[in-house]
# Entry
Amino acid sequence: MDQRLTAEILKTCESIGFADDEDKYIADPDWEVCVKDLILYLRRDDDDHSVRRLLGQAQVLGRDLLPLFKYNHKEPKLWDLGLRLLVNLTHPALLLYEEEVPKNKKYLNYYNQLLGYLRSYKEAFVDKVVWKTLAEKLRQLLNLEWDKRMEQDKLTIERILILIRNILHVPADPSEERRADDDTSLHDRILMVMHISGFEDLLLYTAVSETTQEYSLMVLEIMSWMLREQTGEQLAKTQLARNEDDKIKDERELIRMREKEAVLKSIQIQKLPTRHSRFGGTFVVRDMKAPSGRDLLCHKPITSVTDLSLDSTKKRKKVASNRKAINDEDSTRRSTIPIRIILKDFCAAFLDGTYNHLMSIVKDNIVRGRIEDNDETYYLWAMKFFMEFNRHHEFRVSYVSETMSTSTFHYVQTLLDRYQGMMVTDKERIPFWSRRAHTALKTYQELLFSLLWMDRDEDESVKESSRVIKSNVFYLPEYRELCLGLLNTYDPVKLSKMYLKDLVETNHLFLKMLQDYSSQNRRIMIKSKGKRKKPTKESRKKKKARKGASRATMNSSDLEEAWAIVSGEISSSFLSSELPDGETGEEIASTNVNVIPFDAASDVPIDEQKETAVERIAVFLHTGKFKEAVVLLRASREVWPNNPEYFGEVDCEALDEVEVLKSIYMEKASLPAVTEARISLRNGSDGGETESRAGSPIAEDDYERAAVIGEEEQDEEEDEEEDEEEETRAIELEHEFDFRGFLLKYAMAKVVCNYALLLQDWDTLKPLTLHCILKMFHRFVFDMGFPALICQASLFLTFKKILEVADLRSDLKDVKKFFMHFWPKFVKLCEDKKMFIEILFWKTAREAQEIQDGYSDHRGTGEGASKKKSSWTTEEENELELLVELYKDAPEEVKRAQKLIDFIMERWTWRPKSKRLFMLKLVEKELVDPEEVAKKKRPPKTWGEEEIAKLRELYEEHKDSNDIMGSILENMLIKRSKKAVVDKMIEMQLINDKSDVKKRGRRSKKTFVSSSQISGRSDSDIENETTREHESTRTSEHAQSSGESSSSDSESSDSESDDDNEKNDSMHLEISASAYDDEKVFDLGLKLMANDMMVAVRWIKQSLSYYLEDIIEDPDSDESVPLVPIGSDNITAMSNSEFKIWLKHIGMHPPGSQETYWRIPSVLRKKDVELRLETLTKILTSDLPPKEAPVVANTEAEKSPIRSKVVDEDTNSRDSEDVHIDDVDTSAFTKLDDSDLEDLDGDIKENDVGVGVVKKKRAFVIESDSDDE
# Structure
């Protein structure tokens, strides 16, 4: 910083005021200007924070600003200027560096300097008068009515709260304070003066008042910094006199520390050499050779093998800063008893009447996004702290009812998932997200503890609430497997050891609660996620064949017999005034949702749901639900009165309705939904329900499942590009809970490794954490039966260290006891010598099972493996060898047409097997070369002449069939992929694109026009079809925008659109590369040029040039390019029918049903585009034909379909307008002579493209009677 600026700032600080002989601070008359200057200096501070550091070095806050508040607090301007400067000076240093400690040494030094100044500011604030002054001002502002509170008053309240937050936020420095527990720290002194000034009551009032809700989150943040060194349990158990529990706990801690000290002392004594230190010398280490080959020499006495290390003098490799483990130290301490009593009373008062209200407001702000980043962590902290305090003080669920719900579990879990994801994406701020994840985990742990306390409550309603929450948490897999997922994804580089400790304790608590809940409730239904294989095309064909076989069993005679049985009951139902059981149709319709004829919420139009209604009537008839069938028939007739072929006439008799039902019963019996419904009705879901379901209506979910199966079969028939590979899709299943099965999910190498990693810190772990680790190991070894799972060398080393001191420490006796029970199992496993290799690796449950029961090969024929169905008998092996010999002796045509595996599977007579099993057996029996089997044979890249001729022959033979590609691929000489064959057909100009060989539905009857038919068509025919396409497109767009059309209109439009689509497809093939007429295109182009369309012709030529560049860069591109008109000339041309006909002759495709613009088809290759560009160049460079003479309107205007009027335009007030001659309809005009042309008060000018334009000043303007023209 400049020295002059430094001197000016220091002079400004001196000019604020001074202290007299009585230590009373007297403000200078210019104090206001000085404070404003300091605010301005801070606002213009540099990145090094030079001004802030200078003011901290000058101690301006303690020497001038705080005394100014003490003795001049009645000055109104002081609360505006002075408070602003205090808030600015006490701003947290971490926020100045964007919540991240700087890594640069220079900025780290500045950061530490700022922290030191902030601690001095905090020391200066230990003043009762300053806090009373602030409290009095805040009380005055809060007592104001909300309508009398001005904006300046709100800013003053906010600044006071921010100032308190800044002071409490300053972290302690343990190296300077060196305060032990039960001693007064700087933070405790601040809390004491806050209590004396009455700030705690003001905070509670601000949190609960309706007029100060905007400060709720700020109050919560202040409370978090007030209680950051405390725990809820510690405050709740605080008493004026030490209770017995605290005494016993302290005595145990003292005994543990003394035992630990004694153990360390005894170890040090054992390490001391027996000889005196004066007797040094050189020692020889036996059985260890030096690099020279002689015995290793040591120049100091060795008492332990571990002391002999050759790595002591080596330079250790540096660990990268981003790979260092995160150190999350525990900042909690035990304050003095008076401070703890004050905080305990404050927390009790907050819980009694403020907690639920404040947490509700804060949660609403979080949901609505009215918070800043990181503010949700204060919400999580408040939940964790006050729910823990509530458990140990006076447990009442009503105090924390706002946060004790299933939605809270969901919210905390969502935050945990989010923080885990951010550690992966935002790697630069991993420590930041790690601390947040730790806070969320501790909150989740406290929610589980509160559930456990609710179970122990004497009130039955509280217990019932706990059971409801636990049923939701244990039911969904997202809640149930949260701890398992966190253990599996733990990374010691990103997350601290404290996080792992809390995670292990949380998992222990969750498993304990889940085990107790499952033991109390024998049948627990849970939801789990699974995967189901998506059926392939081949499997669905087999399924369809089985369905068809099952349907074939019920022939027409069976249907007649069945109808004879049920027709009597149906007829009586129609002829009676009421339906069976005395129920009317309206009653059934009101009680049974399934009789509503249509689904109003479905995306399918109501008019298209007729078939679904008929199908449902058939399901009702075949499952004994006759009254529902009758009601649904009549309701459907009211919805669709114009479809008597489906539901009968509107006023038909009851006997006629019986005939309608009979036709539905007979015709729809083979539908998949009806068949599935009959099977479900016959079999039932289980044995106990068969009898009841046989006479009861079919369940609605059975019908839906049957409909799904029917849709799958229909999709299989219509989809021609079904993927042959097996895919899986996620599904949700509901089944009975098995605790041991859930426990087996923890048998993973990552989970065991994390538990062993935490056990390495056994010397500093609490007894509870040690118990959680041992309990999990006990589950692995004894409950799951996988002792090999924890057999790992590093874990054994940890046990070895523990056993060395276990006899001297009482808290390690359980570890020794567990190891003594585990050791015999390990010794038994060591009977297999491979175990000594296995202890070097972490193992999964499957690997542990193999170690214990015996290793198995990939076919499952080991000791512990069960005999599978894929085993081969002697007869099967003999038949396999025989079929291989037959294939070798077969003619070459058979070998070329069929592979060995296909040949064998076609003639196989034993149990069916997969191709893989056949391959493995052929290799095992050495019947084929393994290298040839392993190498995938691919068809040659180049096509032979014979293959090309065969492809052309197959296309000509099957081009009129419904499945062109299926027939071609089946008869190809060399098996190739569908894409390769389609590309070759386009290259041979057999088709335009892949849509030409798309599988057609049963109703599709597209006709393709030959080249001779194309040549015989006139331009007028093409123009009529083009106009019809345009009109139908406009009609369909209008119908979509209006959304109102009758059923009959929609049906007719659908049929017409189908016909138009067929014609469009034909037109796509008509004007293609193979039917390109150069002369026709040239003649039509000259006509367009004569009609002033040179701009549009040039645009088409330029678009084709760009397309040519694209296909040169990417020859394999199969995308069509849209022709987007830009400019009035191009847009006008696209609406001209002659221009559209010319585009079709060039080979452009008109827009389809879902398209807007004309397109350059992808079938045009390089030579096709070059041919068209040649023609367009000739058109643009040729001489134009002579134009026809202009015309004027007939004098008899009333006889003309077009009326004329004279428009006088003032050339001074309006610019002249351009009118194209081609836009004028000449049918109602007569030709003018050359002399008449001279009389026109206009002239013809040439624009930039040579198009004739009439400049009108005083001329005839023609207006059409029709708005369309």
User: Anything to note?
Assistant: The radius of gyration is 45 Å. The chain is about 60% helix and 5% strand. The chain has a mean pLDDT of 76.
